[in-house]
Amino acid sequence: MGAVLPYGQLVRTAARARVAYVPRRTLTTTPILYAQNDQPGKKKTSFFSSMKDWILGESPETKPRARKAAARQQGELGTSSIFAEDMSNTSGPKPSRKKEATEQQQDGKPHKSLEERDKAHLQFALNPNPKAQLRWEKKMVIREIRKRGRLPKAVQIKRTERESLSKSHWFKTSVKKLGPLARQIAGKNIDEAILQMRFSKKKAALDVLGHLEHAKNVAMVRAGMGLPEEKAEPTKPLTVVLKSGERKTITDPTNIYIQEAWVNRGPYGHGMDHRARGQINRLRPPATGLSVVLKEEKTRIREWEEREATALRKRKEQLWVQLPDRKISAQNQYYSW
Length: 337
Description:
two-stranded antiparallel ribbon, 39% helix, alpha+beta, 11 helices
């Protein structure tokens, strides 16, 4: 700082040079000016050029022209979007027709439409390992031949009988309170169960009622349950014996009944119980869900017939026969002794 000229001497030096501009700052502000020159958009200058600008004034600099951004409407796609080619009003450069024609000539194969493309290439993308699929198809054909077209019992039941599983949302009640209602409606006709829940005094019965009505509608719309069959002959009332020993008369085999009903434990909530002397206890209100399986009366008839056939077979096995019931063969006119 000893090399810095005094203020008065600097003014006299400027007067001799006949300069109208007298700086009001000393040379100690050079670091600040360097920091100002480091701003983006400004040209970096040296120490002597900055001194020249202080004394003679800053030289006019040409400001760079601001690049006008392309006008974009609201909801318009950008130029880098993959869907920009499908939009007619998209801004930005687009491939010209000449360029497309040149690319087609270079490739030697014109671009075909989706209908004219080779389906083998598409099949290769969908099924990359066709040999494995062929082996699986052969295996299934061999299995059908060995079984002679016979289907397993579970598959036959799935094809001939309808069922619908419906799970409810979480009810604000406990398993202990909802369990008796689930046991009450299990095995009953859907309309009878709805009627019992409508006149029940339980608080959770309203939630069960709404869920049963929803489950019935879903079973009718999605599975076609409970709808009369076309060109079906009128059936006579049939009395069956349920597994519990109860007798039930079935008038329409397409009626819906609740085969199973069970309760699912849900998450616990959070609550506050304000007590005396400023004490607060934490409450955990439970949540519970209800699940029901709906089936038609055809299932009850089939199950009853299977139970009767099994009981009859067991009774026949317990019978004692003196001689085996078979044909007499290999007889001889002489005694065997």
